[in-house]
Amino acid sequence: MKIALFGATGRVGSVILDNAIKDGHQVQALVRDASAAVSHDQITYIVGDASVKEDVFRTIAGCDAVVSAMGTDKKDALTKSMVHILPAMRSEGIRRIVTVGTAGILDSKREPGKFRFHSSESNRKLSTAAEDHCRSYLMLKEADLDWTIVCPTYLPDGERIGQYRTEINTLPDEPSSISMYDTGDFTYSLLLNHQHIKERVGITY
User: Fold this and answer.
1) How far apart are CA 55 and CA 105, in angstroms?
2) Do 115 and 131 form a contact (C-beta atoms < 8 A)?
3) Torsion angle in degrees (nearest 10) through CA of 69, 47, 127, 184
4) Phi and psi angles of residue 22, each rounded to the nearest 5 degrees, phi first
């Protein structure tokens, strides 16, 4: 399989990249600086910016699936990338996309009808990142694609434990944290088993 990967040099993205390489897949990864990336003959790096249409289209060209583990910023990085990722996928005839979101865009259990980041379940005072993730989710929701969003709770580096809880569209009760390794492993597994199509998946220990 040939995978288009966004966020390959980030914490979760690097775990996804490592898994893909170990399984013998080819990866096309969009990076800002290739000199800081791991060199491997199964990886093709496209140096560019996810907010630039041409760079996104070059990254996705010829691929079978798309993964985005991009982090957000205060400049709507996820929204700006998704504007180009979706038409690039359609152009290439690609249906499968798995992204890493945030638990804030899951449904609130305490206040039905609200996202967690709009409810009393969220302790964060600033919602800029969650709003960017939410816009990205709403764009995927309207797209006729096989999308899944993995929504981790607090995300320390941690270690690979291999056991965790997941729940569709909400967060499991009494959530704690989830390491970047287990988040990356779970995200990568969805490319292979095609589970949770058109669902957000909350993940925590």
Assistant:
1) 27
2) no
3) 10
4) -60, -30
33: number of Cβ within 10 Å: 9
CA distances (Å), 114 to each of 11, 118, 128, 178, in order?
A: 29, 6, 17, 23
Spatial separation of the C-alpha atoms in residues 17 and 7, rounded to whole Å: 10
CATH number at residue 72: 3.40.50.720
Q: In whole angstroms, how far apart are CA 7 and each of 32, 44, 49, 64?
A: 10, 14, 11, 17
- Which helix (H) or strand (E) segment holds residue 141: the answer is helix 128-142
pLDDT, tens digit, 9 for 90 and up, residues 175-203: 999 999 999 999 999 999 989 999 999 99
Burial (0-12, 13-18, 19+ Cβ within 10 Å), 166: middle
Structural domain range at position 40: 2-204
Quote the number of domains for the chain.
1
Tokens of 136: 């990205």
- The C-alpha atoms of residue 121 and residue 159 are separated, in whole angstroms, by 26
pLDDT digits (tens, 9 = 90+) for 46-74: 999 999 999 999 999 999 999 999 988 87
